[in-house]
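Dear U.,

For the methods section draft, I wanted the exact inputs and outputs in one place so we can describe them consistently. I've listed the two proteins in the order they'll appear in the manuscript figures. Please don't edit the token lines directly; just add comments below if something needs changing.

First protein:
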Amino acid sequence: MVDTAARGWRDNSGIFSKQTVEERILSELNKRLGCHKNYLNYQSRLKWFKNKWNTYSELMRFSSGFGFNSSTKMFTATDEVWADYFKAHPKHNNKLRYGTFHDYEDLEIAIGNGVAVGKNSIGLGSTTDARTLGAEEGRDVHIDDLDYDLENDALISQPQSDQPFPSTSPLISPKSHEVPMQKVTQTKRNRSTYEESGVMERLNEISTSFKGIYSLLEKRERERKYTIWDAIKDTPGLDEDTQFKAVELLDNKGNKDVFLKMSLEERLSWIQHKTRG
């Protein structure tokens, strides 16, 4: 999906059409891995990715104080910002604060439409029509009934809600092969209603795409402002005197670059080693 997005194969609304998924993604995946994945499998995995991305983007949107360090693959923020976040999200744990997230930037491109910055989306030309609901797309994807759980890195069942009303669509009526005029009229109305809802869906997707672009620009600005002093302050277990000594040790670009690529534990060990004695 990341490679497909980088090649500009989204349609004009910023999403992957069913045709693009089947011809560009699934065909190559099945050929390389010797598997037989179909569009329903893609929808299930897409749901998984979207739930993970929603967890990440919810964190980034919570406060402008949050950032993401591309070197360490970690979310960054001051102690006060983290405290406010966990107060508002008591079910989230310190995995978000101290864990590494190597899939964040890939999901930002594939799900958050981050690759759209400075590029034009390229459609598939006359072979691509407006997105229609085929037989496979009309089926329920059971993974939609699950929520992503960050702590266990898994999808969990949602509480059961009321059963939906049974379908009244004449297209699935088994009573007769003859279709009365009233049902034909109703079918046309249903089709018109669906087309209108499809337009609204595309508008919502375009809005989401712009939000992804804005989020990416904000992230790059935060990373530009993330200094070596910020990295030292984010390292746990350092008193003020040790922090000042660490600044003196990191007096050249080479040392700074290496330090920023270290994990928090490696930074602490490096500083303790250099200041020992």
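Second protein (the one for the lower panel):
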Amino acid sequence: MIGNYLIRCEKNNNWVPIVPSCKNITSGICGSPSILNGDIEPLQPQYETGKTVVITCNRNYSFIDDTIIMTIQCQGYNLWHPPAQLCLCNFIKLVICGCSLPFWILAVTMFYRKYIEER
């Protein structure tokens, strides 16, 4: 497969990244790396051996080493070096902005009500 296996439909009815296609793997070609929660520049369906791409994680995401940008190079046979990493949600931001947010809103609301009642 040339391109990402995970794509999304934007509001303007365009697929991002480009819709993948199937081709035989050849020695001098790499498909677009599969990246969730990040962007690839330049974004193409395939790359020739030696070409590089820059992966940038979306806001509030980073690689396991806390960086947000990495450059990888096509080695041919659909292999990238170094291998593309996952863009992971930053833990603290996940706790504050993720599923724990309703709990914090409830806790602050209850604390405020108790404070008002005691006045």
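Candidate sentences for the figure legend, describing the second protein: The radius of gyration is 21 Å. The CA atoms of residues 29 and 64 lie 27 Å apart.

Thanks,
Y.
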